[in-house]
């Protein structure tokens, strides 16, 4: 079953896995060394990330390396972009209010 990309990145452990793999391809064992959880738990997180195409796997001998898929993450960035203008406008308005309060 395909998972939703937003569901996948909602979990902090999966976000941490993405951050690690964005820097370099890693095996599940190498990833598990970064967490205080079992390798099986890390493998479940990897499975979710792979199912929603945020990770791609590559077999190299007996090892499986996971790579970050930036194209899929672009969907998240594109969706968030529609809100960026809204919050930037609000922050700019807040800056003006604070500047006016400072000068009074």
Automatic annotation (TrEMBL):
Gene3D superfamilies the record matches: Winged helix-like DNA-binding domain superfamily/Winged helix DNA-binding domain
Gene Ontology MF term list: DNA-binding transcription factor activity
InterPro entries assigned to the protein according to its UniProt record, in alphabetical order: ArsR-like_HTH (IPR011991), HTH_ArsR_DNA-bd_dom (IPR001845), WH-like_DNA-bd_sf (IPR036388), WH_DNA-bd_sf (IPR036390)
Coiled-coil regions listed in the entry: none
Domain HTH arsR-type, chain residue ranges per copy: 1-88
Transmembrane feature ranges: none
Pfam families to which the protein is assigned, alphabetical: HTH_20
Protein known as: ArsR family transcriptional regulator
Organism of origin: Paraflavitalea soli
UniProt lineage: Bacteria, Pseudomonadati, Bacteroidota, Chitinophagia, Chitinophagales
């Amino acid at each position: 079953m395909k998972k939703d990309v937003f569901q996948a990145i909602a979990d902090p452990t999966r976000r941490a896995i993405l951050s690690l793999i964005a820097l370099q391809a890693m095996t599940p064992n190498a990833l598990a060394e970064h967490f205080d959880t079992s390798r099986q738990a890390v493998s479940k997180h990897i499975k979710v990330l792979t199912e929603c195409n945020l990770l791609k796997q590559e077999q190299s001998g007996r090892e499986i390396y996971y790579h970050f898929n930036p194209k899929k993450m672009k969907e998240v960035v594109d969706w968030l972009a529609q809100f960026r203008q809204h919050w930037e406008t609000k922050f700019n308005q807040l800056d003006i209010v604070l500047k006016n309060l400072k000068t009074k």
